[in-house]
Amino acid sequence: MSSSRLGLGARELLSVRTTGLTRTTRRPANWQGLVQRNSLPKASPFSTSQCMARSPISRSALDQAHGRLAASPAPKLEMSRRMQQNIGEITAEAVSLILPGTFVLPRPSQFPKPAVEKVKLLYNWSLIKFQEILTNTTLKIMSKPSIFKRALFKPKRSALIPTAKGLHRAMAEALAAGDKNTIGRICSRKLGSSLLGSIDARPRGRRYGWELVKYTNKLLYPSIKSHRISPLGREKNAPIVRQAVVAISSKQRRVEYDAKGQVVPGSEKEIDVVENVAIACVVDARTWVQGEWRLVGTIHHTTLHAWEEEKELLKVMMQSS
Asked: Where is the signal peptide (predicted)?
């Protein structure tokens, strides 16, 4: 889904038209750009897919908001409260989106055929991977109370795969069952909105079933495709978003039931699918305590053409900032 979709290959499984995630412009962690999604189109009855359009929220928006509050005659306590509300809104929006610099390397079978393009794709991926490791290491060092003390922030990569698998399965089961409470609890704001819309759009009396048959291709999957940690602002204690993309290969079964509880003929299907599942959480830069993980959705692998376009957009945005 744009920022929110269960299953690129699960279009057939979910029996609705799905669209790929329109990836946000990637910016370095210290450039702090986010992307805001436009209003959602009408949802399909069992849809986990909505389009995301590019409309960047620049850093200047935060500066302008801070300036308006600073000029206000309200007491400092009120100013602090209002700033916290603004930060809360921005944080909720941030964990609904794919962070700048997210590069999902495709499977070998999906690589471009020309050797030159293969080399370019791998070169860009290696640069992003280096930046990713450097940024994550820098933030870990920044969490040290002093040079001789241990870092307070210890991002455990080992927890990323089981977390992504758990959220992915819980969301699919909740969507099939129409469990709005679970969707609201485990999904990001944008993903949750689109999934709730798809539940409300279902025909009266129609029920759905979803089952994870098994995980497949266990020699290659699941695997961590991206792990980014990025501050949301230039301030010392600006909130930090931690995001991971985990590739999961599985066989899934889906079925529909009519108002009488009978299986709708032809609705029971099984599909093998590889999904790049994105999850995100917020880290408090003052205490370095990590919040709960949220499911952002699934995204397409990165293509060379799309990446080149984003680099051009990035240049324009950096020049105008």
From this structure: none
